[in-house]
Specification:
- With 279 residues, the protein is of the alpha/beta class.
- Helix content is 43%, strand content 18%.
- The protein contains eight helices and eight strands, in the order αββαββααβαβαβαβα.
- The strands form two sheets. The chain has a six-stranded mixed sheet, sandwiched between helices. A two-stranded antiparallel sheet has the order 1-8.
- Helix 5 (181-190) links the parallel strand 5 and strand 6.
- The longest helix is centred in the first third of the chain and has 30 residues, at 9-38.
Length: 279
């Protein structure tokens, strides 16, 4: 009986190993083609690229009088905590911001002077975070209503929205700043910016006549809130008056990923073809 010898056994094992790999790759290609046919898709209900909302600036009084407490007598917002008017105003403003799903929102703080605390943006969490950093007195102890409007107007510098709105909230009278409310109103009218004014606190604290004048001349409305509950209702009313057309619709952003799966399958097929040609 003759003996048989195989000098290069490793060639046989390599070939067998590749056959297993080749079979596995063919199965993978088949699975990938099935996935591609299923057309994997990611759907986003809110597409910022297609939004048609409004640009809104919240101009908030941060003067010394906003540190007064006792505004939430019904304990609906403070939940047992001793909160100032300013802190309550921030909480209610935060709720309003979250409701404006399709709108861009910015924040202006005013006292002796005014500054843009958050530029107009679609990123609501950024606006809310900046709002939380604010405290009364950051812009001084007095009340520059003219400055609060003027900086609100400046915040719309790069705005392309058809509808521009300022919601100005104060508990005092105009007594500071280099810009008069009259001049500030003219600035808003030139840019077709509507102003909603809100007086808060006890009757007689805020200058109702001035706030009514600002609202009337700019095409907005004037409201007065003597409690936290009333202030919440005022923001709800403004939300209804300025509801976005897009808000009642569902805009979908669809991203299809079948092409990525097909590309991977093609790469594997080219590899198998290359191995076949080399044999």
């Amino acid at each position: 009986m003759k003996s048989k010898f195989f000098v290069h056994l490793h060639f046989l094992s390599a070939k067998k190993s590749f056959i297993k790999l080749e079979r596995l790759l063919k199965i993978t290609v088949f699975i990938l083609l099935c996935i591609a046919l299923a057309s994997p898709i990611v759907i986003d209900k809110f597409n910022p690229l297609n939004r048609h909302g409004k640009d809104i600036v919240l101009s908030i009084d941060g003067s010394g009088s906003m540190n007064a407490s006792g505004f939430d007598s019904e304990n609906e917002v403070s939940k047992g905590e001793r909160l100032s008017r300013f802190e309550i105003a921030k909480l209610i403003a935060t709720e309003f911001i979250h409701k404006r799903e399709s709108d861009n929102v910015g924040v202006v703080l005013f006292g002796d002077f005014a500054f843009i605390a958050s530029p107009i943006t679609y990123e609501k969490e950024i606006v809310v975070d900046m709002l939380n950093y604010l405290s009364h007195g950051m812009a001084g102890q007095n009340t520059a209503i003219g400055e609060g409007i003027a900086l609100g107007v400046r915040a719309f510098k790069h705005s392309k929205a058809k509808s521009k709105i300022i919601i100005l909230l104060t508990d005092g009278e105009h007594n500071s700043g280099s810009i008069s409310p009259k001049d500030a109103i003219e600035l808003s009218k030139k840019q077709d910016i509507k102003i909603y004014t809100i007086g808060m606190g006890n009757r007689g604290e805020a200058d109702e006549a001035l706030l009514q004048k600002i609202a009337h001349e700019s095409g907005g409305e004037f409201f007065y809130a003597e409690s936290a509950k009333k202030l919440g209702e005022v923001y709800e009313k403004i939300d209804e008056l300025e509801s976005s057309k897009i808000k009642s619709r569902e805009y979908l952003l669809k991203d299809y990923y079948y092409w990525m799966v097909l590309l991977l399958a093609l790469v594997i097929l080219l590899f198998l073809l290359y191995r076949e040609v080399r044999r």
